[in-house]
Design goal:
Blueprint: H1 3-17, E1 29-32, E2 37-39, E3 46-48, E4 53-56, E5 59-68, H2 73-83, H3 86-90, H4 93-96, H5 113-123
Antiparallel strand pairs: 1-2, 1-5, 3-4, 4-5
Helix pairs in contact: 1-2, 1-5
Length: 124
């Protein structure tokens, strides 16, 4: 599997376990009609959850798609906890291999292919 395929599959598992990642809120990435994806990220970004609109860049823009909040180690650990009984993990993959998250980067997308492959094995 490619790195992007692993990210997509892990992201699907995390969203399943932590659906609040897809809520429209501060830090959430969204796709606006006619724009690249943007992040709701400052006090000037006001949004209307009911109408799926945001006041952005001086105008009201329609939200085409909610892409969700970034996935970090916290969301990964919550997903692992929900996906498997933690007692089972003690005698499984987690104990046999090293889990080495690169803390220089918070987001899932910035982790190595080895970490992504390990996480996918743990979550599938």
């Amino acid at each position: 599997m490619t790195q992007q395929e692993l990210i997509t599959k892990i992201r699907e598992k995390v969203i399943e376990a932590c659906p609040e990642i897809m809520e429209l809120k501060f830090g959430c990435e969204i796709k606006l009609k006619g724009y690249w994806p943007v992040v709701i990220g400052n006090e000037w970004d006001t949004y209307d959850k009911d109408n799926q609109e945001i006041f952005w860049n001086g105008e009201i823009a329609k939200i085409e798609k909610i892409l969700g909040s970034p996935i970090g180690i916290t969301e990964i650990m919550r997903t692992i906890q929900k996906a498997r009984n933690m007692n089972t993990l003690q005698n499984s993959t987690l104990q046999k291999k090293s889990f080495s998250w690169d803390f220089k980067y918070h987001h899932l997308e910035n982790q190595s292919e080895d970490i992504l492959a390990f996480l996918w094995e743990l979550l599938k």
